[in-house]
Amino acid sequence: MAKKDAPPRWDRKMQQRLARGEAAALGELYDRFASLVHGLAHRVLGDERAADGITREVFVHVWEHPESYDPNQGPLRTWVAGLTHRLAVQRLRDTGAAALARGGPGTAEELEHRVRHASVAARADYIVQSMPAPLRAALELAYFQRRDYRQAAADIGITEEEARRRLRLGLQLLSTAHDAASPGAPPGYGGAA
Amino acid sequence: MSGTDGSEAYDGDDAHDDHAGRAPEGPRANGGGGPDHPHRPPRIPTPRTSVEDGGLPLPAVPDREQGEDVQGMRENLRESLRQDLDRLGELAGTVSPAPEPAHPVLKSLLGAWALAACSAEETAAVEAHLGACGTCADEARRLREAVGLLQRPDSLDLDPGLRTRVLERCLERRPPRIPVPEWALAYDAETARLDALLQDFGDSEWHAPVRLRWFGDEGARNRRTTVAGVIAHLLAVDGLVAAALGLDDPLEEGDAPAPPQERTERYWRDAHFPPTRSVRGPWREQTHAVVRTVSFTQGTGLLGVSYGGFELPLRDALVDRAFECWVHAEDIADAVDYPYEPPAPRHLRGMIELAVRMLPGALAQRRRAGLAAPGGESRHLVAAGRPGRSVRLEIEGRGGGEWLVPLDSPAAVGSAEHQVAHVALDDVEFCRLAAGHVSPREAAAGQAGDQGAIGDVLSAVASLSRL
User: Fold this and answer.
1) 3-state SS string for chain A
2) Chain A 4-33, residues with CB within 8 Å of chain B CB atoms
3) For residue A55, what is the nearest residue in chain B, using CA coordinates?
4) Any idea which architecture B160-341 has in CATH?
5) Potential cystine with A142: which of A42, B94, B116, B117 (Cβ 3.0-4.6 Å)?
6) Do B117 and A125 make contact, defined as CB atoms within 8 angstroms?
7) Which residue is closest to B281 within chain A, CA to CA?
8) Residue B1: pLDDT above 50?
9) pLDDT single digits (tens) B116-147
10) What ipTM was reported for this prediction?
């Protein structure tokens, strides 16, 4: 369950505290975003240790360069997700290219395809986590728990029309994961509010 | 909107429709082949179940240009709603009762259809419609592809050690101007570990029964609560530290702070309802606020924190709270059948060291209460600062160490020459004893020497526990 988006005030304050060199702020930042960062990195790289590495890089970057986040450009969460995405995709491409250079199997084209696929998958995860909870809950019931929309409506306690609406809107949001699938996608990472 | 049934009207509210201009052509639900695309091959992606179960390829990824469509889809919801409603009005005026659901209803079903979450009749109706309606077929394909993007979140329990490693790395690269004091690090780490454990708890976990155990003067005690009740307990007792730091106290207290158990009982009682998951936020906010605040009060680790009956310096109070946090995290983990590791060795050592320092006082208190042996023939009053009868306490493991605990007075100094017994136990076992989770008699301890002295020491360790 993703936490509800924090108010911008929190973001601004956090940036100031990081800039001031407050170690406690770094801990709070980690507590809020580590599972997001690690989850996205893992989705792109498919490897626990590589995801640990990206997590370290992301927090080191934010701690060393807190000024590179501009609260006027959007939520800190979105920015952190974008940074993670960029670093993870870069890592995937670099390790893949290095393997090719060593004479590993596959072609540059296949590598690019793999990178794009991983990138879309990670963005889709982010969209699901960031979409309004009611939409996520409806998708969860219909997809993972295999409830039809009438059952889902009854489970949630909404009308059937509303259940249909949520499923459709949720998938519409999710489908935007294909957009801007090029690397360096942010700003506006993931599209979903 | 007259003549339109409620569900259709309702349904339009997020509908995207970029073919409103074709609307006046009327319904196509029962037509074979849409007039716009008479020769188009069926563009209908197969329902998800059959794709996956049948091993057929998923539909190809659409051209990138479609991205703009979707952007428009999201931006123009309001506009398209209006258009849809207009269309509905027109339809309502022109349509004779159709055997099949109207376009807006079918469109509203696309999400459920893509997820294979509608009835067989609806599925058939939608699929018939997709052969006729290009817009719906486009959307259907997009939504079907979106379903392919739904993935179970990799249910990764973040390695709790990762937090420490990442933070240390950061602080190496850029040393903090305002560090977290050394003595608050265990509290910071343990609260983070517990919070991570709570992360994925559903209601059933939050309400799982927990039996809190401790060792009172009367022996083993216990109290039933739930996982949420345990967090409420931590919130209430951490509030003692918060109050000492001038932060908001979760309990509205009078002048003198009440002891931990009383605070907890009062907090549970005053809540009127049994605690729920909603307690997690305030608990976590308070732990963060405590760590933040002590960082700005460097050098005031000696500030006194009142526990009601006694007082601890802030630096010890935070080690004590870290210990309690771990102990209760383990209670919670047991209750929901999750594994939970002991703290990092250096944090564990700090906790053990504090407990050992508190032992002479605990021994004296038990003696005053008539629970420990009074001075006998071989025992003598010891002047402050002088060596006295001692028990060698050897704690094994990475969090351990070795101490000489003076038996007869908190003011005495432990002395190897006056050693009357030797007790050895494992670091985690010692902590379980200090938490009241094993009884002094059950504790797996290697013993040599004066059995009475050993019994007094082990009981004094257990007496450090409380609710």
Assistant:
1) CCCCCCCHHHHHHHHHHHHCCEHHHHHHHHHHHHHHHHHHHHHHHCCHHHHHHHHHHHHHHHHHCHHHCCHHHCCHHHHHHHHHHHHHHHHHHHHHHHHHHCCCCCCHHHHHHHHHHHHHHHHHHHHHHHCCHHHHHHHHHHHHCCCCHHHHHHHHCCCHHHHHHHHHHHHHHHHHHHCCCCCCCCCCCCCCC
2) 20-28, 30-31
3) B166
4) Up-down Bundle (1.20)
5) B117
6) no
7) A3
8) no
9) 999 999 999 999 999 989 999 999 999 999 99
10) 0.85
Instruction: Count the domains in chain A.
Output: 2
Q: Mark yes or no for CB contact A167/B117 under 8 Å.
A: yes
CA B121 to chain centroid, in Å, comes to 44
Give me the pLDDT at residue B97, please: 44
With respect to residue A189, please indicate whether it lies within any of the assigned structural domains.
no
Q: What class, spelled out in words, does domain B346-463 have in CATH?
A: alpha beta
For residue B162, pLDDT over 90 is answered with yes
Q: Which chain A residues contact residue B14 at CB under 8 A?
A: 165, 168-169
Residues 99-158 on A with a CB inside 8 Å of B are: 120-121, 124-125, 128-129, 139, 142-144, 146-150, 152
Going by pLDDT thresholds of 50, 70 and 90, the confidence category of residue B380 is: low
Give the domain ranges of chain B: 6-147, 160-341, 346-463
Whether A192 maps to a domain, the answer reads no
The predicted pLDDT at position B370 comes to: 80
Give the predicted TM-score (pTM) of the model: 0.76
Structure tokens belonging to residue B261: 């158990």
B173-216 per-position pLDDT tens digit: 999 999 999 999 999 999 999 999 998 899 999 999 999 999 87
Question: Are residues A1 and B200, on separate chains, in Cβ contact within 8 Å?
Answer: yes
pLDDT band per the 50, 70, 90 thresholds, residue A132: very high
Q: Is B120 on the interface with A (CB under 8 A)?
A: no
| Residues B349/B446, Cβ–Cβ less than 8 Å | no
CA A96 to chain B, closest CA, distance in angstroms equals: 22
Contact flag B170-A26 (C-beta cutoff 8 Å): yes
Which segment of A134-138, B158-162, B298-302 scores lowest on mean pLDDT? B298-302
**Token digits for B173?**
């690269």
pLDDT band at B78 (very low <50, low <70, confident <90, very high): low
Are A79 and A94 in the same domain?
yes
Measured between beta carbons, the chain A residues lying within 8 angstroms of B159 are: 52
